[in-house]
Write a structure and sequence with these properties.
By secondary structure, the chain is of the alpha+beta class. The chain has 5 helices and 10 strands, in the order αααββαββββαββββ.
Length: 180
């Protein structure tokens, strides 16, 4: 039996010596390659989901105009906004103070009317995504990816889920941006 194991073992060792080196043996150690390996995959942009449930009428959130924003006279050191794309007018804008427990205050345009919203905590609570409350409406911002770009306040992929008091729900896809 010992005579049979020797040729089999020798063959296995010879094949192992001829095989390709593993990726860990051939991976370069340069800092640029390590940085690429450490990067997270790009986020998947969520899609807008139409209204479901409720009385059947759609939940329509419109883009805020400059007049809407200036008329609201929001107070707070820093702001957060939700827009469907970078550079677009927001559909939700809120302001709050840093390191504050005072509620953040904001506005959203439901159809043609401006509604005020508020969220518990100040700016710090908003920056990570939060729930805003309005008359008959709850708006929940959830971050879905890493910051896109550089700078002090790069936008982050997010969803805005609108829950209406009658049970209707709609999910909007876009970007959440917080800062000065």
């Amino acid at each position: 039996m010992r005579n049979l194991l020797f040729p089999v073992t020798s063959l296995a060792l010879a094949l192992a010596a001829c095989s390709q080196p593993s990726q860990t043996e051939t991976a370069p150690t340069g800092s640029a390659d390590n940085a690429k390996a450490a990067e997270a995959p790009p986020p998947i942009k969520p899609t807008d989901v139409p209204t479901r449930g409720g009385d059947g009428s759609p939940i329509e959130l419109a883009m805020l105009t400059e007049a809407d924003v200036s008329g609201a006279k929001l107070k707070g050191e820093l702001a957060c906004s939700f827009a469907d794309d970078e550079g677009a007018q927001p559909i939700l804008l809120a302001q709050g103070d840093v390191a504050s427990e005072e509620p953040s205050r904001g506005i959203v345009k439901v159809g043609d009317s401006i509604e005020t919203v508020s969220a518990n905590g100040g700016f710090d609570a908003m920056a990570k995504g939060t729930k805003f409350y309005a008359k008959g409406l709850e708006l929940r911002v959830a971050l879905t990816g890493l910051a896109q770009g550089e700078g002090e306040s790069p936008p982050r992929p997010a969803t805005l889920t609108a829950d209406r008091a009658d049970g209707a729900r709609r999910v909007f896809a876009g970007l959440w941006q917080c800062g000065p």
